[in-house]
Amino acid sequence: MKFDRASPRDWIFFVVTALNIVLASVVAFLTPRLSRNRRRGVMSGHVFNGNLRAFYDTVGHDAVGWEFRYIYIDHTAYRSRDAGEVGAMSSLRLDHVIWMARADVVMTDHGPGIWTLLQILRPRVAFVEVWHGVGFKGLGPDFGQKLVRYDAFFAASEWDARDAFGSEGRSGVSGMKAIATGYAAVDSLARPGPVDPILARYGLDPGRTGRVLIAPTWNHGDSGRSLFPFGLDAAEFLSRLDEWAQAANWTVIFRAHLNAPAVMAGDYPNIRFMPLREYPLTYELLAVSDVLVTDWSSIATDCLVLGRPTIFLNVPPPFTPDHLTADDRVGYRVTDWNIFIETLTTASQGPEEYVEEFADDRQRVLDKAFDATLDGHSADRYLEALNDIVNGETA
Questions:
Q1: How many C-beta atoms surround the C-beta of residue 321 within 10 A?
Q2: In terms of Cα–Cα distance, which of 187, 348, 372, 209 is closest to 281?
Q3: 187 with 377: CB under 8 angstroms?
Q4: Which runs of consecutive H residues, i.e. helices, occur in 278-377?
Q5: Measured distance CA(355)–CA(362) in Å, rounded
Q6: Is 24 left (phi over 0), alpha (psi -120 to 50) or beta?
Q7: Running DSSP on this structure, what letter comes out for residue 34?
Q8: How far is Cα 222 from Cα 139, in angstroms, rounded to an integer?
Q9: pLDDT tens digits, residue range 45-82?
Q10: Helix 337-349 vs helix 234-248: angle between axes, to the nearest 10 degrees?
Q11: pTM to 2 decimals?
């Protein structure tokens, strides 16, 4: 979960979790598990999505010699989880945290957070960071320092392994091995399958001519930064977009970032509001979308795998682009509403124009971001690397 310092509920979750970690570490030390026939892996993130979810759904749930479980810190999310998540745990349950304290490896996608305490008390547990996107903002030295007790960082490519933290950041985590596994979350995009089952699951009308996914990043702490571009407020932007979608017979999917406030649904019959918090599987939304609209979100890099048109809202970045750069925005860049709607119409009616115009830039960024890992087997490489780590073969 994303920790909100202003939320009493979040403080309760974290305090109880911290107490459980201490108690569980004592129990695990005094009473080690009897059978080690199966390795134990625990996954943790803000929500169960991205690389962790893709790994579990495709490889982890039936990996030979392993049992993987996802642990929720947000107990509300744990209680409302999908019925199929049979391996789910809650950090508010001591028995679950004891299971975690006896694990072989912990996989995270946003750093250790509260699990830093577990790293200190249970140093025998290996930690692996899988992260969640090849973005424009580098992880930087501060995040690198958070990974000083990690065994490995699963990177999207060799370039990502070298550059993700910057030169200063890598020096802070020099003992951690960066492994170019690729990203499990893009495996399904590299080898796309039928979209009808996804449309049915989300209740999206298959009879529409197409779908556009609008997915801006969050404000990164800038309270004056609007979610909506071109000086338009929410009602103006959404009503105009709804009119375009009605005329084009398209569906607009508006996906708010996990760290952004939810957009309240209004009378916009052609717009589906599908925030990340409620619809966490972004790669499924990409799979069913014919056009992506974003600004500085790493979702643009994932969309490159599909080769479908991307439109960038050419607004100032909320951070310094120091991993991927401004020149790595492969797609149309728009600065006002009129240009945006003209470009959206062009992209929706003639996607082949995008493919032709941006072919060289697309390949350049794909080579950098994913290199040779776009074979649909990144999740398999996760498991291979985990086996090496727990067997002491990563040095």
A1: 16
A2: 187
A3: yes
A4: 282-287, 299-306, 337-349, 351-357, 359-369
A5: 9
A6: alpha
A7: S
A8: 19
A9: 999 999 999 999 999 999 999 999 999 999 888 988 88
A10: 30
A11: 0.93
